């Protein structure tokens, strides 16, 4: 189990951690106390995953270019 | 001028041109008549002058066309003409008056024919592969769920639409489109700059830096796709810090960028599929994990409670545990007062027995008996003492009589005398003669012969009146 705070995990990290927690719990060779804290961690990870999944916002913008051809800014793109 | 030509004697009154005039006229005519032309041919001898101008020949089986690109034009050529290359050159036909030559001022060279292009592509591939840019270990994993996706493509057309649609279906994300020309000579430099430009963005800056780049273009002829075969594009893609998916043309069209990109997608839609997972599937997955989590915790608790139950059943009831000892206690507590009484009685009997003998009478009887014993002992002591005294006196008397009988005094009574000289017994004449004074002792006393002794010696006989020890 990694020591990284759940709130700093990427979606993939929290997915992997959640999978591990579920696997550990399902093997059933964990102390009851430990399994309760595992469960709590699992719930936290699940929340994190759901949060990341909820960030499903579409935003499309096109880069506007300056005279030298470098990115100057963005303009929203709609209707595609 | 036409009336002059109609003269009977042509040339007689013809105006004279200077060489430069006619050269200039020819130049004007040629430039005016042809303007910009495209010429296809094989590159012949090429010569890059020290000045930076490039001179080369374009030829076919029968003719040769001199061609020149000025220094400024050379740098803008997308292809450097090489001998043997089948090309289409574009430029203005003009003359070179100093040598009475006409030539093509070339500002664009493209490779003519697929075979020639493929040969050139192979050459580039070999060179880049030699540098290790295609190595599988250079390929990086794509982020599982990128936050921002940078798409380098034409801002209009089906490609960007397909990508956005597919992204929306799977997992809506932030998308930054870097508009570029996807064919023509502007394609390669723009795509190169776009890849570099996305990489140049600072994370957390005003324009979000993508964590994944898709370079996409729809299908087309090899010439259309040629921009993505340019070395600058391939090098920019290889140098990109941001993982890059190439999706150029159809699956059968493999361009140079496909070899250096981290993943190659057969179509723009496929690139979108590689870029993001399906959100709904992930939601389902998370829910399933959550269910498994709760189920396994529930099982952990219920299996333990079952076990506890089983163990508890095997545990004897406290009542059972106590029955035996309780019975023992009952029995013991029943017997306790009896035993106590019994013991008291026993002890009392014993005491009575013992104390029965303990009476003053016993002591009273004891005292006279002892007195009797004392008295008798006293009598016996006195008697024994008296008896002992008498015996000892008798023995003393007997001894004294013996002493007197055996002593010399008795002998004296029978007429013997003891002669002493100077206090010592004299036993012979010799010593008698030496003695100064002689003393004779008889039974009834002593007498001195000769002169008187200086000191009277004590008689040797023991005192006759010695008292008894008792």
List keywords for this structure.
heterodimer; A: 80 residues; alpha+beta; Helix Hairpins; two-stranded antiparallel ribbon; B: 470 residues; alpha/beta; OB fold (Dihydrolipoamide Acetyltransferase, E2P); Rossmann fold; five-stranded mixed β-barrel; five-stranded parallel β-sheet; 14 helices; 14 strands; 48% helix; elongated
Describe this structure in words.
The complex is a heterodimer of chains A (80) and B (470). Chain A starts with 10 loop residues before the first helix and ends with a strand. Chain A is elongated. With 80 residues, chain A is an alpha+beta fold. The longest helix of chain A is centred in the middle third of the chain and has 23 residues, at 32-54. Chain A has helices at 11-27, 32-54; strands at residues 59-65, 71-76. Helix content of chain A is 50%, strand content 16%. Chain A has a single domain, classed as Helix Hairpins (Orthogonal Bundle), CATH 1.10.287. Chain A has a two-stranded antiparallel sheet. The mean pLDDT of chain A is 84. Chain B is an alpha/beta fold. Among the domains of chain B are: 19-112, Nucleic acid-binding proteins (OB fold (Dihydrolipoamide Acetyltransferase, E2P), Beta Barrel), CATH 2.40.50.140; 146-277, Rossmann fold (3-Layer(aba) Sandwich), CATH 3.40.50; 286-315; 320-352 and 375-400, no CATH class. Chain B is built from 14 helices and 14 strands. In chain B, the strands form three sheets. In chain B, strands 1-2-3-5-4 form a five-stranded mixed beta barrel. In chain B, strands 7-6-8-9-10 form a five-stranded parallel beta sheet, with helices on both faces. A four-stranded antiparallel beta sheet of chain B has the order 12-11-13-14. In chain B, helix 5 (158-170) runs parallel beside helix 9 (268-275) and helix 6 runs parallel beside helix 7 (231-239). Chain B starts with a helix and ends in a 21-residue tail after the last strand. The chains are: A alpha+beta (80), B alpha/beta (470). The A-B interface holds A 10-12, 15, 18-19, 21-22, 25-26, 28, 30, 32, 35-36, 39, 42-43, 46, 49-50, 52-53, 56-63, 65, 69-71, 73-74, 77, 80 and B 143-145, 155, 160-161, 164, 167-168, 171-179, 190, 193-194, 197-198, 200-201, 206-207, 279, 282-283, 285-286, 289-290, 292-294, 296-297, 299-301, 303-304. Strand 1 of chain A pairs parallel with strand 7 of chain B, so a sheet runs across the interface.
């Amino acid at each position: 189990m990694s020591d990284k705070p759940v709130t700093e995990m990427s979606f993939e990290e929290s997915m992997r951690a959640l999978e591990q927690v579920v696997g550990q719990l399902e093997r059933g060779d964990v102390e009851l106390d430990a399994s309760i804290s595992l469960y709590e961690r699992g719930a936290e990870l699940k929340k994190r995953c759901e949060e990341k999944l909820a960030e499903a916002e579409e935003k499309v913008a096109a880069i506007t270019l300056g005279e030298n051809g470098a990115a100057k800014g963005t303009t929203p793109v709609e209707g595609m | 001028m036409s009336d002059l030509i109609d003269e009977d004697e042509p040339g007689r009154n013809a105006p004279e041109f200077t060489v430069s005039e006619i050269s200039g006229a020819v130049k004007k005519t040629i430039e005016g008549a042809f303007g910009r032309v495209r010429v296809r041919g094989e590159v012949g001898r090429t010569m890059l002058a020290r000045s930076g101008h490039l001179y080369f020949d374009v030829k076919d089986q029968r003719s040769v066309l001199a061609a020149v690109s000025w220094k400024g034009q050379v740098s803008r050529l997308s292809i450097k003409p090489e001998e043997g290359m089948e090309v289409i050159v574009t430029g203005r036909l003009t003359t070179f008056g100093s040598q009475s030559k006409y030539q093509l001022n070339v500002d664009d060279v493209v490779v003519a024919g697929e075979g020639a292009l493929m040969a050139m592509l192979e050459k580039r591939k070999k060179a880049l592969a030699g540098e290790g840019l295609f190595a599988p270990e250079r390929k990086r994993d794509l982020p599982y769920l990128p936050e921002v996706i940078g798409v380098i493509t034409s801002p209009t057309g089906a490609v960007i639409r397909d990508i956005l649609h597919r992204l929306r279906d799977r997992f809506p994300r932030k998308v930054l489109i870097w508009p570029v020309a996807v064919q023509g000579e502007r394609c390669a430099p723009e795509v190169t700059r776009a890849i570099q430009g996305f990489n140049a963005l600072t994370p957390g800056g005003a324009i979000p830096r993508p964590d994944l780049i898709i370079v996409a273009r729809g299908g087309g002829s090899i010439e259309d796709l040629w921009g993505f075969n340019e070395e600058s594009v391939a090098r920019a893609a290889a140098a990109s810090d941001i993982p890059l998916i190439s999706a150029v043309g159809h699956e059968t069209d493999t361009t140079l960028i496909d070899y250096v990109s981290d993943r190659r997608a057969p179509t723009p839609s496929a690139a979108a599929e590689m870029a993001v997972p399906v959100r709904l599937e992930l939601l389902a997955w998370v829910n399933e994990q959550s269910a498994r989590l709760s189920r396994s915790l529930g099982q952990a608790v219920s299996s333990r409670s079952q076990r506890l139950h089983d163990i508890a059943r095997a545990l004897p009831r406290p009542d059972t545990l106590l029955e035996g000892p309780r019975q023992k206690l009952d029995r013991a507590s029943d017997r306790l007062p009896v035993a106590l009484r019994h013991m008291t009685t026993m002890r009392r009997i014993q005491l009575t027995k013992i104390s029965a003998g303990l009476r003053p009478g016993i002591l009273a009887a004891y005292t006279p008996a002892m007195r009797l014993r004392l008295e008798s002992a006293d009598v016996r002591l006195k008697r024994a003492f008296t008896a002992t005294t008498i015996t000892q006196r008798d023995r003393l008397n007997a001894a004294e009589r013996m002493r007197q009988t055996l002593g010399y005094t008795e002998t004296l009574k029978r007429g013997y005398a003891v002669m002493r000289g100077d206090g010592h017994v004299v036993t012979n004449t010799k010593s008698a003669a030496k003695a100064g004074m002689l003393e004779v002792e008889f039974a009834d006393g002593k007498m001195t012969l000769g002169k008187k002794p200086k000191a009277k010696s004590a008689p040797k006989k023991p005192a006759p009146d010695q008292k008894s020890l008792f």
